[in-house]
Amino acid sequence: MSDLPRATVRLNERGHRCPMPVISVARAAQAAASGTVISVTCTDPGAASDIPAWCEMRGVDYLGSLTEADGAVSYVVRTR
Amino acid sequence: MTGPTPPAGYLDAASGQPLNPSAEASWLAAAEAGWADPSRLYREGRRAALLADSAREAVAARIGARPDEVYLVADGCLGTLVAGWLARSSGHLVCSAVERREVLSVADSVGVARSRVIGVDRAGRVDRTAYHHALAGAGLAVIQTANHEVGTRQPVAELAAACADARVPLLVDATVTLGREPVPDGWSILVGRAATWGGPAGVGVVAVRRQLHAPPPDLPRAGLPADLAAAMGLEWADDHRTQDAARARMLTDRIRSAVVSTVPDVALLGDGDRVDYLTALSCLYVDGEALVLGLDREGYAISSGSSCVSDVRRPSHVLMAMGALTSGNVRISLPFGVSDDTIDGFIVTFGNVVAAVRAMLDVTDLSTEMPHE
């Protein structure tokens, strides 16, 4: 998914269990201006469900995910 | 309802509940009169065999089967049963993505060439059209009556009709509903679990239609006192379930509406077409284990769908398949005879425990403000 926009805020949540990745992205979104693209890179398999679910609950746009070279997955979101 | 009085605060009936009065009385009677080996020809053996027969007859009558179609076995044989049945045919396995882990393990082990795992919608309900299409050339189809983590009911009658048309045997996993809801028609193989209806833990029921011309593979047995207690417990539960279900529906609905209006950032899971006694929800910014332990300290027993095993978190495959929030997940399931006080106390305590966990994680500021009443 190379067509994902470039994130201006990049969070590394490798090795952290949920709910930590969600808390981290929520914290970043709270501080960010509207329209900011944020990526959060996770190894917790639950993030695949939890990041999109958080987006839906909090009115944040979920843009997609991509797998990194080390197997971690980056989820990309944009604040409204 | 005269019946069991579960401990105050106990809300994990889907995992087990106290023996109901008939189960308890029969356990003692069977232990006294039916201790002998029922395969022996002497008087004590024959007496045990008679009790074993009466257990099968009682279960058969309640599930709409013939006694020779019923097997009382040790609980936990679902995987063996599915694998055993699949091995008899050259066709593939069809099941939903939210079946019990034992079923999905069989699908994993036979690989994609011999299994079709059908996706579910946001409520956890299987894609009927895809399930339908996957039946061509299938050797066995599996569907649960309702999901064990979120309570969502599956369209069993419709899938059973499709299986009959396609001449595919259908295994109906009724472990969540048997003894608490009506038994659906159209099964070829039916599986239930005594713990669900207030029978003894460790006993399962398997029924196989004679038309299949094959008994199930050799399955471990639980033995007589447990079998008879399970059967008589099922009679009691079946006699009381309608009255219980109406009340359980009212109480689980009360939990859902109260929690969503008092606790910020909660997602209710499933929809209205769910098992009356069971409901589930997930909360942002907390983990399920912290909620389970926090509620336990306050005297409430519930379970969480996602388990944390040391450092490796294994999120619930059910919630993942639904695309639901897996963190902060709790399942609440009401035992027979649950008190109003337990429900009302739980609602208040749940909000307090969520707030305490969020305060501990320093995330209170991330939550939406709730409107004041």
Gist of the model:
The complex is a heterodimer of chains A (80) and B (373). Chain A has 80 residues and is α+β, with helices and mostly antiparallel strands.
How much of the residues of chain A is beta strand, in percent? 25-35%
Low-confidence stretches of chain B: none
Overall number of domains of chain A? 1
Q: What is the subunit organization of this protein?
A: heterodimer
Give the topology string of chain B: H per helix, E per strand: HHEHEHEHEHEEEHEEHEEHEH
Tell me the name of the CATH homologous superfamily of chain A: TusA-like domain
> What is the helix tally of chain B?
10
Q: From the alpha carbons, calculate the radius of gyration of chain B and give it in angstroms.
A: 21 Å
What's the CATH first level of the largest domain in chain B?
A: Alpha Beta
Q: What kind of sheet is the major sheet of chain A? A: 4 strands, mixed
Structural class of chain B, by secondary structure, is alpha/beta
* Strand coverage percent of chain B: 15-25%
CATH superfamily of the largest domain in chain B: Type I PLP-dependent aspartate aminotransferase-like (Major domain)
The arrangement of helices and strands of chain A along the chain is EHEHEE
CA-atom Rg of chain A in angstroms: 11 Å
First-residue to last-residue Cα separation of chain A: 22 Å
Task: Summarize this structure as a short list of keywords or feature phrases.
heterodimer; A: 80 residues; alpha+beta; Translation Initiation Factor IF3; 4 strands; 30% helix; 30% strand; globular; B: 373 residues; alpha/beta; Aspartate Aminotransferase, domain 2; Aspartate Aminotransferase, domain 1; 2 domains; 7-stranded mixed sheet; 3-stranded antiparallel sheet
